[in-house]
Inverse folding.
């Protein structure tokens, strides 16, 4: 009898322990955890990409604390490749570690599908500042945070794939600078002249192109942009593969052909390598995320170029218009946070007109608000950049230039990355790679229950 | 031998004097097996938690549909994931790539490792410094090694191509060419792991019995005869042990490939563990990734069992 009592007690204790471990966060108070006081400040944690987490912690947080001194913000940086699974675990886990989560453009449907993100226009509306102007956001970056009719995240680092060009190398080659009207045919004609010997020693030391070529989920965004600028989507409205045709092959072949005019070893180019090559004056053009502009043309510590050397425009045009590709980092609030008021206050400030002005001037971050885009730029160099950005936003909106908006987007990009790499290295022709990618993506979507 | 035994004996001797009676003495009588289990329990609990639980969880996931919204396995799907995996050309190709890597890299590292160990065993000036330098690759994190070698092998900026260029070779696409990419991964892996084989081999060589060599010398054996008839047979157990340990390390290699080539170009260097990692943690296909991991675990266990059998036979033969 005594033994069974002991067993029962032990089982009850274990059960209670397990229940305690598995319980969700405690109930949020009516004031959303408040905004803290000098005696009892509120602490929130943000999971961000390691490319800019330190900048945020060192400069953005102190700026925020000038207005909200009682909200302590910790920003943790995570490598890009680890960030999505870590955030997924965070949103689905029982105990919240992070109050604010950041996601790349294509991750938002997947993160939203966990049910772990708040709808920013409904769940936290009671803490929304009266002056917070949703309508001021440009619809292109704002759409990156929407899924299934709800606004789960808000843009914190707007970005577009754009074409950088080195004006000196264009002049040296005697080639007219590109514009939004430059077509791919014209670009390739110019590219031949842009592979040149600039110092007269008889050896080629400058090439035409630098961009993503290696096996990476972001590499296919280049030929996706070509595809979109010809008016063809990756997936149609019924989420069926729409690129397994001549248009898809032509787009991928365009990307493969760029390699002919790139520096030796460019087939391994990811993010850093083309950036370095361009910053050191080795490539005349670079298809890259616009947000690197400040580090490429302004910051003397990281570049040999000056703002007057660097031009920025949309990618060469296809039959449907110029090219660009949306890549917005946006941030949302974890549903399990115990401090939604403080988390939303932080996010509102970062994405406010004031916050955008600060991140624009301090980090060169691109704005998402029309008032910032059309107003006085944060710095002198920003004026032509914002013009290119506006043209890019328009191109993106017109031809739906973004990665698939579905929870399996990352898996789709993985398939495209592999097949793109096969085509780049000559292991497959563009046609074989496109066929294989179309087949694999169809199978993937079918296995996930999408009618194919 | 055990604490409980001593307690029992002491207790038995003192029980009447303390007046606690035979019942109290029985309470502490665990016996030798009981004591053994008592002491082993913490280790077993740790082992179960750290090793068995992940294995069983992986098995469970491999037979389930993994719900990304809940981030946990839901619903039994039987062999569905395994069927998909066995039809996946990428997985089968990654097994082939792993096989090529193992077949080339392991013998290369064994031969180089033992050859260098022999050289280091000979008295010559500066060998101590070289021996210390040999340890450096082992302490470099594999991801760092992959990244640094990627820079060294870069056709435009890398020192390897610069050097080759001085004698009119190149630029060579070490990472961009599918065949050379595999050569590069094997090169980096060999640079990193040969010192480990050198360490084991050097220890084995130093432990060889001197009297056998003296006997061989007095019998008039030459250098080659001594090497082939005495040194190598005596080193067989060391070689077998080194091979098995290296095999277990090599079979799980993916970090160098991830840092240096990302498994590319195409699938040229996509070793199976990298493929599983990408499938699980990039594509978030946890069901498929778990099935692949289970298949690889089974293959590894079977092959390791055979390697151990061969190793035992070789040890018994000599």
């Amino acid at each position: 009898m005594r033994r069974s009592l002991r067993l029962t007690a032990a089982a009850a204790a274990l059960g209670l322990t397990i229940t305690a471990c598995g319980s969700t966060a405690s109930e949020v108070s009516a004031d959303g955890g408040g905004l803290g006081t000098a005696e009892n400040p509120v602490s929130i944690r943000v999971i961000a990409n390691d490319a800019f987490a330190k900048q945020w912690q060192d400069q953005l947080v102190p700026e925020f604390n000038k207005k909200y001194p009682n909200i302590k913000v910790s920003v943790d940086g995570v490598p890009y490749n680890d960030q999505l699974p870590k955030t997924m675990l965070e949103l689905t886990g029982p105990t919240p570690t992070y109050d604010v989560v950041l996601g790349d453009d294509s991750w938002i449907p997947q993160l939203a599908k966990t049910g772990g993100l708040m709808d920013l226009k409904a769940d936290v509306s009671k803490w929304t500042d009266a002056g917070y102007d949703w309508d001021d956001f440009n619809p292109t970056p704002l759409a990156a945070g929407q899924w299934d009719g709800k606004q789960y995240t808000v843009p914190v680092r707007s970005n577009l794939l754009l074409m950088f060009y080195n004006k000196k190398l264009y002049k040296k080659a005697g080639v007219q600078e590109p514009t939004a009207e430059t077509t791919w045919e014209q670009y390739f004609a110019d590219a031949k002249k842009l592979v040149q010997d600039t110092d007269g020693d008889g050896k080629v030391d400058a090439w035409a192109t630098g961009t993503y070529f290696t096996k990476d989920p972001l590499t296919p965004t280049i030929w996706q942009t070509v595809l979109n600028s010809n008016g063809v989507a990756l997936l149609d409205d019924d989420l069926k593969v729409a690129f397994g045709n001549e248009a898809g092959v032509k787009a991928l072949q365009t990307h493969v052909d760029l390699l002919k005019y790139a520096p030796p070893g460019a087939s391994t180019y990811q993010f850093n390598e083309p950036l370095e090559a361009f910053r050191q004056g080795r490539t005349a053009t670079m298809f890259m995320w616009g947000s690197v502009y400040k580090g490429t043309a302004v910051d003397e510590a990281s570049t040999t170029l000056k703002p007057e050397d660097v031009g920025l425009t949309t990618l060469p045009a296809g039959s449907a218009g110029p090219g660009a590709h949306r890549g917005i980092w946006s941030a949302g609030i974890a549903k399990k946070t115990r401090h939604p008021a403080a988390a939303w206050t932080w996010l509102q400030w970062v994405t406010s007109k004031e916050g955008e002005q600060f991140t624009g001037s301090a980090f060169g971050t691109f704005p998402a608000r029309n008032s910032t885009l059309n107003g006085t730029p944060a710095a002198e160099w920003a004026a032509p950049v914002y013009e290119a950005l506006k043209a890019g936003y328009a191109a993106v909106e017109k031809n739906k230039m973004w990665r698939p908006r579905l929870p399996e987007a990352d898996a789709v990009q993985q398939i495209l990355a592999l097949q793109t790499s096969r085509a780049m290295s000559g292991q497959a022709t563009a046609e074989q790679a496109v066929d294989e990618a179309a087949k694999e993506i169809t199978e993937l979507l079918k296995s996930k229950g999408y009618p194919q | 031998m055990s604490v409980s035994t001593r307690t029992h004996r002491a207790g038995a001797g003192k029980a009447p004097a303390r007046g606690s009676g035979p019942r109290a003495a029985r309470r502490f009588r665990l016996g030798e097996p009981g004591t053994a289990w008592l002491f082993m329990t913490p280790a077993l609990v740790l082992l179960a938690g750290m090793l068995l639980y992940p294995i069983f969880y992986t098995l469970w996931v491999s037979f389930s549909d993994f719900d990304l919204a809940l981030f946990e396995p839901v619903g039994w799907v039987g062999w569905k994931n395994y069927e998909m995996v066995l039809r996946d050309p990428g997985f089968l190709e990654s097994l082939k790539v792993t096989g090529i890597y193992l077949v080339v890299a392991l013998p290369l590292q064994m031969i180089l490792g033992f050859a260098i160990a022999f050289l280091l065993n000979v008295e010559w000036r500066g060998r101590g410094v070289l021996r210390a330098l040999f340890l450096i690759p082992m302490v470099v994190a594999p991801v760092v090694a992959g990244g640094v070698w990627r820079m060294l092998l870069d056709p435009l900026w890398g020192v390897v191509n610069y050097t080759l260029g001085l004698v009119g070779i190149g630029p060579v696409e070490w990472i961009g060419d599918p065949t050379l990419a595999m050569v590069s991964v094997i090169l980096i892996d060999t640079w990193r792991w040969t010192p480990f084989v050198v360490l084991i081999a050097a220890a084995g060589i130093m432990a060889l019995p001197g009297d056998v060599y003296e006997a061989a010398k007095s019998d008039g054996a030459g250098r080659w005869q001594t090497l082939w008839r005495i040194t190598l047979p005596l080193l067989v157990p060391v070689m077998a042990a080194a091979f098995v340990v290296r095999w277990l390390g090599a079979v799980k290699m993916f970090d160098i490939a991830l840092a240096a080539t990302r498994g590319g170009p195409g699938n040229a260097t996509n070793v199976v563990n990298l493929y599983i990692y990408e499938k699980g943690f990039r594509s978030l296909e946890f069901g498929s990734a778990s099935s692949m991991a289970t298949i690889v675990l089974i293959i590894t266990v079977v092959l390791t069992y055979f390697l151990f059998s061969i190793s035992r036979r070789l040890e018994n033969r000599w």
Summary: The first helix of chain B runs from residue 3 to 18. The mean pLDDT of chain B is 86. Chain B touches chain A at residues 68-72, 84, 90, 150, 154-156, 158, 171, 173, 175-178, 261-268, 278, 281-285 (CB under 8 Å). The beta strands of chain B are 64-67, 72-76.
